[in-house]
Design a protein that fits this description.
It contains 8 helices and 2 strands. By secondary structure, the protein is mainly alpha-helical. A two-stranded antiparallel ribbon has the order 1-2.
């Protein structure tokens, strides 16, 4: 698990032994973040916290990206906030890979470990929030960027043509 601390336990061993790092309460990560500061948000397995997190994700965030779609997320940011992110996609693509964490020894979990984790209510709830985040992000992505074929090994994304224009509306004096 954590080689920095001299721990040589595998993830499978951690889950099988019920080590404190692999207990269900430690799967309660994103829900409290998106839920907010209410004490109820910190209660692992709280349906109220999940519902609040889902509502906040949809209503209070301009865009939420997902790790496996980082290039697309950067392109979406560049498309919707060009003043702040102009050139970010090019920088991301050519600026090295310092954004990636390096795992010294990555051992895929055994199927029985995955099955055990998937039975945990906290994991199921976190996964439900994650699936919503993916669906919302994919919808935002579909409306804001388009993939462009290039000769390079990687896909490039460009902003879609702007279809909406916003005007300042001033009410009666």
């Amino acid at each position: 698990m954590g080689s920095r601390m001299g721990d040589s336990m595998t993830f499978d061993e951690c889950v099988a032994t019920g080590h404190r790092d692999c207990q269900a309460r430690n799967w309660w990560i994103q829900i409290p973040f998106f839920c907010g500061m209410s004490p109820q948000c910190k209660i692992p397995g709280s349906q109220w916290a999940l519902d609040e997190a889902k509502r906040n994700l949809v209503e209070k965030y301009l865009v939420v990206g997902v790790t496996e779609q980082i290039p697309e997320f950067v392109a979406v940011l560049e498309a919707i906030l060009p003043r702040f992110f102009r050139g970010a996609s090019d920088h991301f693509r050519t600026g090295g890979q310092s954004h990636l964490r390096k795992t010294k020894k990555k051992v895929p979990p055994k199927p029985e470990t995955v099955r055990k984790i998937k039975t945990m209510r906290e994991w199921q709830m976190e996964n439900e929030l994650y699936q919503l985040a993916v669906a919302v992000f994919n919808e935002v992505k579909k409306r804001t960027i388009v993939a462009v074929d290039t000769d390079a090994m990687e896909t490039r994304y460009v902003p879609r043509e702007q279809r909406f224009f916003y005007e300042k509306i001033v009410g009666p004096p």
